[in-house]
Amino acid sequence: MKLAARMRREEIGPGAPIVNQGDTGDRFYVVLNGLLSVTQAERGFRGVLKPGDYFGEVALALDIPRTASVSPMTPVTLASCDRETFEEFIWPLFSE
Fold first, then answer.
1. What's residue 3's pLDDT?
2. Which of 47, 57, 67, 88 is at a distance of 20 to 30 A from 40, taking alpha carbons?
3. Is 42 exposed, middle or buried (0-12, 13-18, 19+ CB in 10 A)?
4. Bridge partners of residue 6, in order along the sequence
5. On the CB side of 16, how many CA atoms lie within 13 Å of its CA?
6. d(CA 50, CA 36)
7. 68 Cβ contact partners less than 8 Å away, ≥ 6 residues apart
8. Is it the case that residue 1 has pLDDT exceeding 90?
9. Using CA atoms, how far apart are residues 71 and 48, in angstroms rounded to an integer?
10. Distance of CA 84 to the CA centre of its chain
């Protein structure tokens, strides 16, 4: 099965975090459109994600809680996949 067929496309408006620092990681995300802010409770603002960037890989790869919160600053379009898809198709790219 192709990766794209196992990805979920979402359009989300600005506001509430998509992932919260400390939560259990269950999805990997790729930014298709829009801007998102990355923050950490102890360090504050960490940066901006833009189209082509991704997030969520640390929690899935290391099996640890989310290391940051990510919130849309503008309307965003994301592609995401679950842990099983990440481990099958994406994690091997990081580990080689």
1. 85
2. 88
3. exposed
4. none
5. 1
6. 7
7. 19, 21, 38, 39, 40, 46, 55
8. no
9. 10
10. 15
